[in-house]
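Translate sequence into structure tokens.
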Amino acid sequence: MDEEILLAVEQIGGRLSRDCYCDLCCLVETAIPHLPGTFSMEALYAEARAESGKEKDTLAKSLSRAAEDIWAYGDREALRQLFRRMPREKPAPKDLVRALAMSVWRKRKAQDRPPVRYQLLESLYPRRFGIRGESWDPACQLVVLLYSRDRAEVEQLVQALNRDQVPLQEAQERFLCGEDLYTRS
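Result follows.
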């Protein structure tokens, strides 16, 4: 069983010793590859059946029990954070699976991207090249326009900045001080 999914379920869970939580985790794991698009529960049940060996009706009842248990005994604050609002009533089983799957999917997506990403910028007339840097933690951007007329030089710079993961603040200070952006201090 996937630890990220288990942790997400544990955060909102009620009485975690119940078997229905294993089936909930299985359905969430099955839903993640379908994101960010939509999925039907019928398709999920069929895929989860291959994984768990349980019939569709058994999985559906188990998912309903998990939703009922989470609503009755779970952490309401964690549920509010998961749904990004406070549900007024017990969430539908499909909504619960989707919210948990989206939560795990977003975390994985955030982990997959580099902390800093630099890109090549190009102006059409006069033809010059620059760089654009973007950071997610903290969220900020750096744009250096008209850095050079040589595309290959700027492409090398972008590759070096991405490879070395130069923080945006450092790149900005080096550029403003007239220092070479290629070398790392």
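Note: The chain has eight helices and three strands.
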